Amino acid sequence: MLLLLLLLLLLLLLLLLLLLLLLLLLLLLLPLLLLLLLRLLLLLLLLLLLLLLLRLLLLLLVLLLLVLLLLVLLLLPPPPPPSPPPPPPPTSTILLLLLLPHYYYFYHYYYYGYYYYHYYYDDYYYCYYYVTTTTTTTTTTTTTTTTTTTTTTTTTTTTTTTTITTTTTTTTTTTTTTTTTTTTTTTTTTTTPPPPPPPPPPFTVTKNVFTQWLLLQLIAHIGGHACFTNSPCFYGILTTTVHVYLRHIFLGHLS
Fold first, then answer.
1. Labelling 253: which of 116, 158, 178, 196 has CA 20 to 30 A away?
2. What spans are recorded as compositionally biased (Low complexity) (predicted)?
3. Which comes out higher in pLDDT, residue 162 or 219?
């Protein structure tokens, strides 16, 4: 037991010694540690200052480059004028190239325009025929007769001694007749209407509507349409076809 106690005491003493040594070391190393910390702080501050300086330098460089660019742009001679553009192609060629694919449709519209012109001319002709006036002048003959009658009576009395009385009466009558004749001439003017226009040229229509539609598509392809099912030209072909057949049906060309 005594030995154990002694051992414990020795251990305690050793621990105390170690603690004392540590304290001494700490006391000795504290200034060094403080110096190290101060140095580290100084280094950090220096690094921050260097970074700020670098940023300022970069900004200055960018500003210098901008100034140089402005000077170069201001001091450089102006660029030479561009070469004149080539002369445009004649408009007649462009119009021909644009209108060639639609020649068939223009022919159709011209043909139906001629039909419409024919019917309008017919209407004008009949309106003109019914509106034309006939000028009639009537002759009136007027006869005026004026008769003037003047009567003069003369009485003569003769007295004789034999007591015979003779009375003589003389009567004079004067008649004046005036005749006035007025003659009016009757003139009748009739306007002759113009002759009707010649009928339009005949137009052959296939009785099978589907065949006629296929013919229209074929002609449209030949005219220059690449694909009539996937282009705006298809709608033009469709509307033209519908217009053509409606026109034929209403005019009685299709049986």
1. 196
2. 172-191
3. 219
Integer Cα distance of 234 and 225 in angstroms: 9
Per the document, the length of the chain is 255
Phi-psi region of 91 (alpha: psi -120 to 50; beta: other; left: phi over 0): alpha
Closest of 209, 238, 215 to residue 223, by C-alpha: 215
Per DSSP, the three-state class of 138 is: coil
**Exposure class string for 160-191: b at 16+ Cβ within 10 A, else e:** eeeeeeeeeeeeeeeeeeeeeeeeeeeeeeee
Tell me which of 23 and 216 has the higher pLDDT.
Answer: 23
pLDDT > 90 fraction of the chain, expressed in percent and rounded: 11
What the block records as the tokens of 228 is 């009539």
Query: How would you write 75-118 as a 3-class SS string?
Result: HCCCCCCCCCCCCCCCHHHHHHHHHHHHHHHHHHHHHHHHHHHH
pLDDT of 45 strictly over 90? yes
- Band the pLDDT of 229: cuts 50, 70, 90: very low
pLDDT-derived band at 178 (thresholds 50, 70, 90) equals: low
pLDDT single digits (tens) 125-159? 555 555 554 445 555 555 555 554 554 544 444 44
Q: Concatenate the DSSP letters of all residues of 163-182 into one string.
A: S-EEEEEEEEEEEEEEEEEE
Residue for token digits 């970069």?
58
- Residue 105 has a CB neighbour count (10 Å cut-off) of 21
Q: Give me 240's structure tokens.
A: 């033209």
Structure-derived torsion over alpha carbons of residues 32, 33, 35, 37, reported in degrees to the nearest 10: 170
